[in-house]
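Async update (no meeting this week)

Hi team, since we skipped the sync, here's where things stand on the single-chain job. The sequence we agreed to prioritize is pasted below, unchanged from the tracker. I ran it this morning and attached the output directly underneath so nobody has to dig for it. Comments welcome in thread, and please keep replies under the output.
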Amino acid sequence: MTPRDKRRLSLLLTSIGASLLAAATAMAAEPTSTPAAAPNSASAVDQHGPIIKDVYKKHFVIGMAGDLPGRYSDEELQLVKEHFNVVTPENCMKPALTHPTEDVWRFERPDALVQWCADNGLAIHGHTLVWHAQTGDWFFRQGDKAEVTRRMKDHISTLVGRYKGKIRSWDVVNEAISNRGNTQTARTENLRNSSWLQAMGPEFLTLAFKFAHEADPDAKLYYNDYGIEAGPKHASSMVLLRRLIKEGAPIHGVGIQGHWSTGRIPYAALDEAISDYASLGLKVSITELDVTIRGASGGQFGRGFPGRRFGGPPPTPQDLKAQADDYARLFSIFIKHRDVVERVTFWGLSDRRTWRFGQHPLIFDSGNQRKPAYAAIIDALLHPNRGED
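Output:
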């Protein structure tokens, strides 16, 4: 083989490899409508036992996140209808997707979700109105404070108003507190230096809640964030919430996202945080719950997570047991605070329908089968002392 032929063969193999890699990436990032075969992880779990939403119906509602019904199989949609009673749109109601430019709105997917939920008797929690990410730069371009405020009000009024009476609650402001905190910042709101803060100052949060309330006075309004259950960020959240209440913001509750990993959940801090928020007269929801078996956790937008695209090794029985134990302990805390906790929403549907693909974070496996975590959550209420002997 000549040197030229060798180079041609090398280029061909490289091209084929790149094509296969791109195909694998696409398949992982956007699941097809046919569920994968159920792995062995669910073989020991009763697939016909009590239903989670029914077991917890006297305590709080149980939700999932997804841009239903498009690109979901009939089996997946049936899973949603059977096990959950509230849906959060994962992406399709975020500012960049609903309102890409000032004069353009995209309501096709939100309308489809609202209609599907209405047809199938599921409530909706809207997500999200004001966020530093996935928001078009046009909101802030060539605008003084008054102009940016007008644009915010128009966005909130139009979106909330369109679904008035159809969406029970909203994440009004999402992730406004900086993730970089310490003992000094804990005494302040420590707001993220977002375009909203730069354009409007701290008042942007209060105004967002007022605009949302004007658009739908009956909707419950939430501040939503990750990591606010512990440490300096929790302290900052209390400073912020006290200010919002003092300024008359019509805020009803706090959303603790709940992106955690096995073996690294701040149980005691979470327990105390729920009590702290209740002391302000606010309800609490766990809004984006997932407990990864391996890899990083948190709520940081745009960060890389091991296994996000290409997956990883299947969970071992020990992995699944540790995850189940963590979920059971979490739900024991939620049960304790049932007078305060209104909703627990899992961020996704299954280990195949999750932003943490490959980290096996949810209570259904990639074949839509119940995992040990599902059974453990049921037992946390029905058999709380099981396994202590």
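Quick observations from my side:
The two ends are 72 Å apart (CA to CA).
The CA atoms of residues 130 and 173 lie 5 Å apart.
Reply here if anything looks off.
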